[in-house]
Specification:
It contains 14 helices and 31 strands.
């Protein structure tokens, strides 16, 4: 087929359709030549090849008239093949456009997708000249045209947020009220049955596990397994096609947008878990699918002086070179695309410490943070860091700059240890329950900087956390050697599921303890999808390869699971109804030190918060580190909320008393005297499997707090006589 090829433009990068043709643009600093390959199907050889002759500022480009939407394409890039110097060009390999807005096809590991000869004694120093075009994914020409129908983001304040981490496929794969052809897809998540669950639960945002296009790696494919979590990214612009019910040749883009629109109509924000720290191409022994063959030295961090090898701060074989201007531009273009074109409301950055590494050490003032801080689009959405990576000095909880919230790993660990019954947790627990001011107040951040969680996708589910002491990852094909050894679980002395009603009751109560603690801590709670219904993975705490019923949400609920769901709804309803339970600021904007002497506020002795022992006495300085105090009460004074609403009126709320008992003994807890004309009511108690009506208490008698139980009391005004 003969075409007239025009020079085109270097920007925007990617494939841009204008109604009559497509502008193609791709960056490569070290390439000596670039060919555009057009395909009729993802598993066929190219139907047409076009040499890109224009190069403007290291960007190769052309304009091809007559190209239509849905056209599949890829590139062949020529240049030196010198792996010892980090150069891995191989024009026999078709490469995926880093700016492709949709991807069609998957990796066929039987095709020659490696740039070197697998059987060569020189391994990656060798050169493979076989064509791989039938076995690699292709880019798809798409359009941004979509009827958003006046879509508006919910704009929920972060301190008012309740985040729900879910997997697009796993959440709906077994849902009986969703049509079979929609289960496990974007359309399935947009279905009224799925949204109804989220609305009734009361969450304000879904945090979607990775939806950037990802692949199944060779090891998993050889084992008959699939990449389930999605942390094997191969493209940062395209919604992963396997979650599309409508097609893989661009239809996934519209379906994703329709999902966002439906969630927004329900008042639910969409946060994406994004993986900009590494790609699926692995180390020097990995495949050549995109970045590695386009410009390896630009896109990846290589070992200085040994450029054959990759710096690995991520545990996956490579680390994206965020220091390079082109790579930084790609990440920023991707973030803006998902906000402006796909209407998402924020991002959770996987292994975000890797993005902050300028040379080797983590630098909280790196270029990545600087450019986000000044960006008029990205700086306005929710930014959440997973504040660690696997490299030296990578644990950076509390060290990210303003604008950023963080997954608070210290919250998770402390709350787990406390409810397990470990000694000496009270001082740390004091900070975690009150918003972690020790981590976030010094640089002007608020309690909402702390994303509190007990469980997440990586690790035990909440039900499994109280049912297993040992991981059971045999299904992953690694002899149960993968996954972390979680020593903060508690299983009542019985490993795994049991028919013993006594053990099951204790476990259900412990699950409620975790949820009550999470929902009534200052900061932003994140619930792992399914925990509100007792979802189990049968002890697998690393289900990254379990795209099956081990990971999927089971909607066939037992009576106990329905009761847990109702209990969780009650917790969220109570939290959302009372600003005292999710304060916008730290207590009186002071650093809350549990061991500090008594505060005097505005000339009175009203406290923001007070800590009590079971005997009714307030905690003393020396008792915080004594080790013998385990059961504790936290008084939250609604009269000193010191906040204002949108019209400038001061907010005053009810006062609350949070009681926690991780011991194996029932505790008689003497209550502080309520104000004159008020009385304490028991609003929630984890000894009860369902939400019960509030119980008016006799203030002259102690509150009987059962073993391994927690409760929330509310100070309410007595009716006038």
């Amino acid at each position: 087929m003969s075409r007239t090829i025009l020079p085109g433009k270097p920007y925007p990068q990617g494939a841009t359709w204008d109604g009559t043709g497509v502008n193609f643009s791709i960056f490569s600093q070290c390439a000596t030549g670039v060919e555009l390959c057009l395909f009729d199907a993802p598993d066929r050889e190219a139907s047409e090849t076009i040499q890109l002759r224009e190069n403007t500022g290291l960007i190769w480009h052309c304009y091809v008239p007559g190209i239509k939407l849905g056209q599949l394409y890829g590139y062949r890039v020529s240049g030196p093949y010198e792996p010892e110097h980090g150069l891995r060009f191989n024009p026999h390999k078709v490469l995926l456009d880093p700016y492709a807005k949709a991807v069609c096809g998957s990796v066929d590991w039987n095709a020659p997708v490696f740039a070197y000869k697998l059987d060569s004694p020189d391994v990656d120093l060798s050169f493979d000249d076989r064509d791989n075009s039938t076995g690699v994914p292709k880019g798809v020409v798409t359009t941004s045209i979509f009827d958003w129908e006046n879509d508006r983001p919910p704009l929920t304040a972060l301190h008012d947020s309740v985040i729900y981490e879910l997997h697009v496929k796993g959440f709906t794969a077994l849902h009986p009220d969703i049509p079979t052809n929609l289960r496990g897809t974007y359309a399935g998540l947009a279905h009224p049955a799925a949204i109804d669950h989220l609305k009734k639960l009361g969450v304000t945002a879904v945090e979607l596990m990775p939806v950037h296009e990802f692949i199944d790696d060779k090891r998993l494919s050889d084992l008959g397994l699939k990449e389930y979590w999605g942390y094997s990214t191969i493209n940062y612009f395209s919604p992963v096609a396997r979650y599309s019910s409508s097609g893989h040749e661009g239809e996934q883009v519209s379906e994703f947008k329709s999902m966002v629109k439906a969630l927004h109509r329900a008042g639910i924000e969409v946060i994406l878990d994004v993986v900009y720290n590494h790609t699926a191409e692995g180390n020097q022994l990995g495949p050549t699918l995109s970045f590695k063959g386009i410009d390896n030295t630009t896109y990846y961090r290589l070992v200085n002086g040994q450029e054959r090898y990759y710096m690995d701060y991520t545990g996956t074989g490579n680390t994206v070179n965020i220091r390079h201007p082109q790579v930084l531009k790609l990440v920023m273009d991707s973030l803006r695309y998902w906000v402006l074109e796909m209407h998402v409301d924020g991002f959770r950055f996987d292994l975000a410490a890797a993005l902050a590494r300028e040379l080797h050490e983590v630098d909280r003032l790196s270029a990545f943070f600087d450019i986000i801080n000044q960006d008029p689009v990205i700086s306005q959405v929710k930014l959440i860091a997973e504040p660690w990576d696997v490299g030296e000095g990578g644990y950076q909880v509390g060290n990210f700059p303003p604008l950023w919230a963080e997954w608070n790993g210290k919250y998770r660990d402390t709350v787990r240890r406390y409810w397990k019954g470990d000694d000496g947790q009270i001082p740390e627990l004091g900070y975690r329950l009150t918003g972690s001011s020790d981590l976030y107040q010094r640089d002007g951040r608020k309690p909402s900087a702390s994303i509190n969680f007990v469980t997440a996708h990586d690790g035990f589910t909440l039900r499994d956390l109280v049912s297993y002491n040992e991981k059971h990852n045999e299904a992953n094909g690694e002899n149960n050697q993968d996954g972390s050894n979680d020593n903060h679980s508690w299983n009542c002395g019985v490993e795994g599921e049991t028919d013993d009603p006594v053990v099951d009751k204790l476990r259900c109560t412990q699950v409620r303890n975790f949820l009550l603690t999470l929902l009534f801590s200052q900061g932003v709670p994140m619930i792992c999808g399914g925990d509100e219904m007792g979802r189990t993975q049968r002890g697998n705490n690393n289900a990254y390869a379990q795209d099956n019923e081990i990971s999927w949400t089971n909607w066939n609920l037992t009576n106990e699971q329905r009761a847990l769901l109702e209990f969780t709804r009650g917790l969220i309803d109570c939290r959302k109804a009372h600003p005292n339970l999710h304060r916008r600021k730290f207590f009186q904007d002071r650093r809350i030190d549990p061991s500090a002497p008594e505060l005097e506020i505005d000339g009175t002795h009203e406290h923001d918060l007070r800590w009590f022992r079971p005997d009714g006495g307030e905690m003393k300085h020396e008792e915080w580190n004594s080790g013998w105090v385990r059961c504790i009460g936290l008084f939250l004074n609604g009269r000193t909320l010191a906040d204002v609403n949108a019209v400038g009126d001061e907010i005053v709320d009810d006062s609350f008393f949070l009681l926690l008992n991780p011991s194996n003994e029932e505790i008689s807890f003497t209550l502080p005297a309520p104000r004159k004309g008020y009385a304490w009511e028991a609003v929630l108690d984890t000894r009860h499997p369902v939400d019960t009506a509030p119980v008016r208490l006799d203030n002259s008698k102690p509150y009987e707090l059962s073993q391994r139980c927690s409760a929330l009391l509310q100070e309410l005004k007595l009716p006038d006589k």
